[in-house]
Amino acid sequence: MTTPVVQIVDAAAYAQAVEDAVKAAAAYYAGGTSTPDDDAYDRLVRGITAWEADHPDQVLPDSPTGKVAGGAAEGDVPHTVAMLSLDNVFSPEQFAAWTASLARRIGHETERFSVEPKLDGLAIAARYTQGRLTRLITRGDGIAGEDVSHAIGTIEGLPDELAEPVTVEVRGEVLMTTAQFEHANAVRTAHGGQPFATPRNAAAGTLRAKDRLYTVPMTFFGYGLLPLADTEPVLAARLGELAHSDLMALAGELGVNTTASTAVPGITATTTEGVLARVREIAALRAELPFGIDGIVIKADLAADQQAAGSGSRAPRWAIAYKLPAVEKITRLLEVEWNVGRTGIIAPRGVLEPVEIDGSTITYATLHNPADITRRDLRLGDHVMVHRAGDVIPRIGAPVAHLRTGAEQPIEFPQVCPRCGSGIDTSEERWRCEQGRNCHLVASLSYAAGRDQLDIEGLGTTRVIQLVEAGLVTDLADLFALTRDQLLSLERMAETSSDNLLAALAQAKTQPLSRVLCALGVRGTGRSMSRRIARHFATMDNIRAADADALQEVEGIGAEKAPSIVAELAEITPLIDKLAAAGVNMTEPGATPPSAVADNGTVTVPAAGPLTGMTVVVTGAMTGPLEQLSRNQMNELIERAGGRSSSSVSKKTTLVVAGDNAGSKRAKAEDLGIRLATPDEFAALVADYLT
Ligand code: IVH
């Protein structure tokens, strides 16, 4: 897949693009948290390259194409040999073109390639003097880099002492594994800092930070081994002659970590097909790797081929990066949802403008906690960096401040637990529902008692919290075992309210199966699905006897939903038994089980009603005999009378019941020429089914 380049139309646009790229590269190397994503940067640079090819006399000195990105600062340490960058390819065709140009340059096909992951971190040169690690230098502008020797001892895979007392420079990538990144962010936020947006930002920031109160580990992978001025001449000569794969083996023997220790070790291949097969293998393993990679590096393996190919000012001609799609993208934060976990932790989750990252569409990403949102000054509508690595839940980085329009809105924090309505314990950074683990119970009981489920009047959330806190109720069935004395023992429960609640509970036991099923809160069985299931199977026993195939006979239940419903129902078998034992109704009035083949061979088909075969939409306020019915009860009525209820008008709709103040649905029905009925006309049509 090739991403389109940024089109540059004139010299002014070119100058602007160069400026943007320079700024982006500077932010990137400074470990900034609001840099453009890799794809955007690549598109920009390719746009610049294309324009420069047509205007070679107008190339600006700052252009990212002419020099190694970064930029040396005063006092930097010169590199013995320039630390170059790599050119990129994005497709098998581009890779084939590169191998062809390499072959032309060296006068023959490349004998052997080495293929290894392109580690997503920062390049570093580690100097060993007689086996001891003496200096660490960043790439800087490729000619000279920053001395970061203070980080010695914090980088796994880069030993303080080599297995042999040799004087060499090891080059490679410093990065944070996913676990190291999580750890670094935990430590950093515990010290009041802002979490790093990405493992690479985290490695860059950590590597350069000098006087931290804490240290966080990083990991090194070597990809180069070269002599220093003081290297013993025999060794220096040998290093110049060894193939890349042999150098990597030697680095390993000396005790330096290389990709050989990973699930994607460097290999050699003698054909383009072999290289591409390995590219596919590495790409397929990317999501499972414990560290980030952003491509695959392919090098001419033999020293002679490398020498014959030579290097440009920016990149060697004997190596190329086969880039994989970026794992970071910028998108907009649309909303923040607050979800309550099993232990009562209330965690914010960002709803994003969908963005494709590495083949998956991302719509949600983790936000850490309210304090973190405040620290980062995130707002709704902000452009944010989203990072997705492997199977880890995508996370939101910093807002991209310069993309703000002023229309961004503050993120509102919940005042009460969004699940059960109790107070929130905000004493720690991670907010928690005051009900803790009981929160789920409070929420599920409140839901079960709701108007569209068991409709238990007098059992609002506050009452549920009281019952749970008093230890009187530990599951739904316990409600039906409550005694008058128990209720009277509760605060603010007088005789009348206790009796009323007991009467409401007795009434709730007679609710149809569809509502009992809905009250159980099985995932994927909301109000209308519960009705469909109950009408299809008629009894709870039939539902429980159904396997995934049988469940799929219910309209709207597919191959994915069916097994999960079966499994969840099996899980709550004891609860269902307890409810049945408490006298809760487990049948659906008027429904007949599917193809109930009687002993005598006759098949019972569901009774037809006045709405059989019809899809009915209700809109506006109901009047007359239907006045008291909630929308859910209207839908129940439609289905009892043999019809299908729907909430939106389409060509499939057969009848629209339009009450007072019916608006757009009525208008749409008129447009489509769909039959309309007043509430009274409809009541007459289904009179036999009104209970
Ligand atoms: S070879 C002269 N091998 O990618 C050859 N680089 O985009 C240059 N990188 O600066 C380096 N993994 O920081 C090489 N296996 C690998 C690499 C690798 C990551 C980085 C390196 C380089 C950048 C170029």
UniProtKB/TrEMBL annotation:
Q: Which residues are recorded as binding Zn(2+)?
A: 417, 420, 439
Named cofactor requirement(s): Mg(2+); Mn(2+)
Q: In the record, what terms sit under GO molecular function?
A: DNA ligase (NAD+) activity; metal ion binding
SMART domains tied to this protein: BRCT, LIGANc
Checking InterPro entries in the record gives: BRCT_dom, BRCT_dom_sf, DisA/LigA_HHH, DNA_ligase, DNA_ligase_AS, DNAligase_adenylation, DNAligase_N, NA-bd_OB-fold
List this protein's GO terms for biological process: DNA repair; DNA replication
This chain belongs to which protein, by name? DNA ligase
Protein species of origin: Streptomyces monashensis
This protein's gene is called ligA
